[in-house]
Design goal:
- The complex is a heterodimer of chains A (100) and B (652).
- Chain A has 100 residues and is mainly α.
- Helices cover 78% and strands 0% of the residues of chain A.
- Chain A has a single domain, classed as Helix Hairpins.
- The radius of gyration of chain A is 17 Å and the shape is elongated.
- In chain B, 70% of the residues lie in helices and 3% in strands.
- Chain B has a two-stranded antiparallel ribbon.
- The longest helix of chain B is centred in the last third of the chain and has 48 residues.
- The chains are: A mainly alpha (100), B mainly alpha (652).
- At the A-B interface, α1 of A face α25 of B.
């Protein structure tokens, strides 16, 4: 049996990687992936606790998160494509105007 | 039997109505309409005062009339109520009578002034306040009148306010009077605190049981001296006399009415009204007498060297007011009031005649530019001669009786007072005849004025050319003649102490003075001496200014230092400027303005604003609009929160 703390540490590492990626990367797709990484880091802690405490609620949360993440991915990727088409760049520092 | 209703309130209210009508509607109205309103309302007040005088003997005195509530606070009350006794009646008749004459005179004198209506509005307003002052039945209502005449005086001194000197003279008068009022007010506070009332009858009832404070200074001394401070301001006594000579910037009828005949005597009236308090404090009385004596002498010596015709009369007024205070100070209140009355006649006349002279020579006030006017303006000369004889104390004119009364009473108190008073009488006679000779005798030294710009600009006699000095119109001469008549015979009421007996019910004889032995002979001797002094002054002036006109310059050269000091009014204005004004201005500038206002108040506000801006300047960089920096802040914040929780050991 792997102890709970291992999961939590891994979850923390994943989340920290996500945050770091979000902060330092300029490519919008990488940033998007970092957000997914953060979400999944949190998901991992949810399922770990659910298994540990034999509580189903944690797993239910994970499903919600995955659904939201999937929806976000569709919308987000659509926006990214739209941004790329109009501005021909994916560097977020150059996408700082809402209006063209 | 119900007491008769005199409707005393009408007397002050009538001029107020005149002032209101002229003030509100006068600008559009014609000069004739303005004149009618001003004269009718002022004349009505005089007529009403006369009817009161005729019914006077049938009254139970003091007659009091209650008009309306004013202040009712706890046990303290002050009402709009009027008080009539012999003293108020004398004041009432002097104020309305002389005031009415001066109103008539002003019609002629001010006719060409563009602000004609404003002048009469102020003049009527002054009458209202002055009559309130003399008719009030409590100190508070009196104080209203007291402040009100100060206001009217300020407005009228600064009547030609476009002239800088007039505007600042008005301010000077107002501010110097404020200093006196400060003392007056504290005196009133003391009265309220200890007697619980400001009503004359109540206060004096409560004061009467007190024994005279012979041992040392006490409450009544304090009140008396504080009231005297107030009187010093209003009546231009040392050390607060400096405003009166400057007040001559106002139109001449104003100088006659306010700064000679009526307002400046308010202090004397107030002291006489409070005689119950003063009589119980020998120290306060001595203060009054000394201030009066010194002022009389001091102002008279300044009068010698003045060349402005109105300035001479101004210093003469200060000096004569000193006589009145001397009288009050030696306990001869009725003599003081007697001199107040005769002084109102002859000094009012002197000013009006001086105004007529100024009018004649086209606005020139410097006596060195006059001379020989006797033949040009004979009526003015005649009236002025009468007034000069009266003020010099030549019998049987008005001034002789009242001045002699004062000197006699002063002699009974202390011969030093008498000596200074008699010397002052000599000086008075000298400078008055000097004025007369410089103005009316010799040759005309003025230039033939023909352009209208000559003379003070606001006082434009543009209606008629000024080829030669010319006599004033009848409207100005008639008041002169009436006042001259009063100056001639006004003193006769004092024969056999008639005037004193009339005022006896007011002043009483609570503390009879021990009459000196052989008084009859002494009085006659003193009388002869003072007449001799008066004649000597006149003769001296005749020698110096008519027969040997080169002498004054030689004497002035001989007494160089003293002459310069006198010419510059003993540098009192400069002294006050150095001691009071300059430290005040500099203290206000350096400490209050630059120090406290700018450095403390302004800077604290400005620095707070600057600080807020600097902090915001730094803080606004946080809100960059850059999403990743926000995320960074969130992450950092989360890290801090987590670190804190770990450190605290939450959940362990």
């Amino acid at each position: 049996m792997v102890p709970l703390s291992y999961y939590l540490v891994l979850s923390g590492i994943l989340f920290a990687c996500g945050v770091t990626g979000f902060l330092i990367k300029r490519n919008i797709i990488t940033i998007f992936m970092s957000i997914e990484l953060m979400l999944n880091g949190v998901n991992l802690s949810f399922v770990a606790f659910a298994a540990h405490w034999h509580e189903l609620a944690g797993q239910i949360f994970v499903f919600f998160v995955m659904v939201v993440a999937a929806a976000e991915a569709t919308v987000g990727l659509a926006i990214i494509i739209s941004v790329y088409r109009t501005r021909e760049t994916l560097n977020v520092d150059q996408v700082n105007l809402l209006k063209l | 039997m119900t007491p008769p209703n005199l409707s005393l309130w009408l007397i002050p209210v009538l001029p107020l109505a005149g002032a209101a009508i002229n003030g509100f509607f006068g600008k559009k109205a014609s000069r004739t309409a303005v004149t009618t309103v001003a004269l009718v309302f002022c004349g009505a007040a005089f007529a009403w005062a006369l009817t009161v005088a005729f019914r006077f003997s049938s009254l139970t005195l003091p007659y009091q009339e209650y008009l309306a509530h004013w202040i009712r606070s706890g046990s303290f009350s002050a009402d709009f109520a009027f008080y009539l006794d012999q003293l108020s009646l004398v004041m009432l008749l002097v104020v309305t009578g002389v005031g009415f004459l001066i109103h008539i005179y002003s019609v002629g004198y001010m006719w060409d002034d563009p602000s004609y209506y404003r002048f009469f509005c102020y003049l009527n307003l002054f009458m209202f306040f002055m009559l309130t002052l003399v008719l009030a039945n409590n100190y508070l209502l009196m104080f209203i009148g007291w402040e009100g005449v100060g206001l009217a005086s300020y407005l009228l001194i600064g009547f030609w306010f476009t002239k800088d000197s007039a505007a600042s003279a008005g301010k000077k008068a107002f501010i110097v009077n404020r200093i006196g009022d400060f003392g007056f007010l504290i005196g009133l506070f003391l009265i309220i605190q200890h007697f619980g009332s400001l009503n004359f009858t109540e206060v004096f009832e409560k004061v009467r049981p007190f024994a005279p404070e012979t041992g040392g200074a006490g409450l009544l001394t304090a009140i008396g001296i504080l009231l005297m401070v107030g009187a010093c301001g209003k009546s231009a006594q040392i050390p607060l006399y400096v405003w009166l000579p400057d007040a001559m910037e106002g139109p001449t009828p104003v100088s006659a009415l306010i700064h000679a005949a009526t307002m400046v005597t308010a202090g004397v009236y107030m002291v006489a009204r409070s005689h119950v308090i003063f009589e119980r404090s020998p120290i306060a009385l001595t203060v009054v007498a000394i201030i009066g004596t010194l002022t009389a002498l001091f102002a008279a010596t300044i009068g010698i060297a003045q060349t402005d015709i109105k300035k001479v009369l101004a210093y003469s007024t200060v000096s004569q007011l000193g006589y009145m205070f001397l009288a009050c100070g030696v306990g001869a209140f009725s003599a003081g009031i007697f001199h107040l009355m005769t002084h109102a006649f002859f000094k009012g006349l002197l000013f009006l005649a001086a105004g007529s002279v100024i009018h004649a020579v086209g606005g020139e006030q410097d006596m060195r530019q006059m001379g020989g006017l006797r033949s040009y303006i004979p009526w003015t000369f005649l009236t002025m001669l009468i007034a000069t004889l009266a003020i010099s104390g030549i019998p049987p004119l008005a001034g002789f009786w009242s001045k002699d009364e004062i000197l006699w009473k002063a002699y009974q108190a202390n011969w030093v007072y008498w000596l200074i008073g008699a010397i002052t009488a000599l000086i008075t006679s000298f400078y008055m005849f000097r004025l007369l000779f410089m103005t009316f005798f010799g040759d005309y030294r003025g230039i033939q004025v023909d352009d209208h710009g000559k003379g003070h600009a606001a006082h434009g006699h543009s209606g008629h050319g000024h080829g030669e000095p010319h006599e004033s119109p009848m409207v100005m001469l008639i008041p002169l003649m009436i006042l001259a008549f009063l100056s001639l015979v006004g003193g006769l009421v004092g024969i056999h102490n008639g005037f004193e007996h009339f005022l006896d019910p007011v002043f009483g004889h609570e503390f009879p003075k021990s009459v000196t032995e052989g008084s009859g002979g002494t009085e006659l001797l003193l009388m002869c001496i003072s007449v001799l002094f008066a004649v000597a002054g006149a003769v001296l002036a005749y020698v110096l200014y008519v027969t040997k006109p080169y002498l004054p310059q030689r004497i002035a050269d001989r007494l160089n230092g003293f002459y310069t000091a006198v010419l510059n009014k003993y540098y009192v204005d400069e002294l006050y400027a150095k001691i009071f004004v300059k430290p005040l201005v500099e203290g206000s500038t350096e400490i209050l303005w630059q120090g406290i206002d700018r450095k403390v108040i302004d800077d604290s506000v400005n620095n707070a604003a600057d600080g807020a801006r600097q902090v915001s300047d730094e803080v606004r960089h946080m809100q960059s609009g850059n999403l990743r920096s926000y995320a960074g802040w969130i992450a950092a914040g989360a890290a801090v929160v987590i670190a804190y929780m770990l450190w605290q050991g939450v959940g362990r």
